[in-house]
Description:
Molybdopterin biosynthesis moeA protein, domain 3; four-stranded mixed sheet; globular
Amino acid sequence: xxxxxxxxxxxxxxxxxxxxxxxxxxxxxxxxxxxxxxxxxxxxxxxxxxxxxxxxxxxxxxxxxxxxxxxxxxxxxxxxxx
Length: 82
């Protein structure tokens, strides 16, 4: 059972570079996202694998380990202008 400070999410699928996750991400679920994969619609945060505990088809992580928008990059933001 989760503690007060633990979040548990069902893993609804995986997004790969070149093979994005298609479809809606259900409430209370997450998508496993590989480096270079586009962020699925409706998702706004990436939690590094090292900060989660995999428990079958769910993940668990400490609530204080996550901040909305963390570990996300917009397409092209790593490129210099010019």
